[in-house]
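Quick review question:
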């Protein structure tokens, strides 16, 4: 796991572009978190509190820290989250969105 210091979303986006990744999503069941991928959708990274996480590292963190209240989120965590994040880890899932739409 790598750590990155940034003050704004623009700084984070620029630093991740320097690594060859672009923001493709920032809202998930567990909350807001910037997610990045390369153009071929073979590398995915998530930024949480300055930590750049692989899908497997994110899964580990969420399993330790995210306790959903809504029943549908509890079911997602129990049955689908591991499958979806590990598919990204193995680059088996492609996404269609090319850019992240930041909310101001």
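Suggested answer, residue by residue:
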């Amino acid at each position: 796991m790598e750590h990155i210091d940034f003050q704004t979303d623009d700084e984070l986006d620029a630093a991740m572009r320097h690594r060859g990744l672009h923001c493709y999503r920032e809202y998930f069941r567990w909350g807001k978190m910037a997610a990045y991928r390369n153009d071929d959708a073979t590398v995915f990274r998530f930024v949480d509190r300055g930590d750049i996480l692989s899908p497997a590292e994110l899964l580990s963190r969420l399993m330790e820290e995210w306790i959903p209240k809504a029943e549908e989120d509890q079911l997602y965590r129990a049955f689908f989250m591991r499958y979806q994040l590990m598919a990204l880890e193995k680059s088996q899932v492609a996404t269609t969105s090319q850019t992240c739409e930041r909310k101001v």
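Why it works: The chain has one domain: 2-89. The beta strands are 2-3, 22-28, 31-37, 44-48, 51-53.
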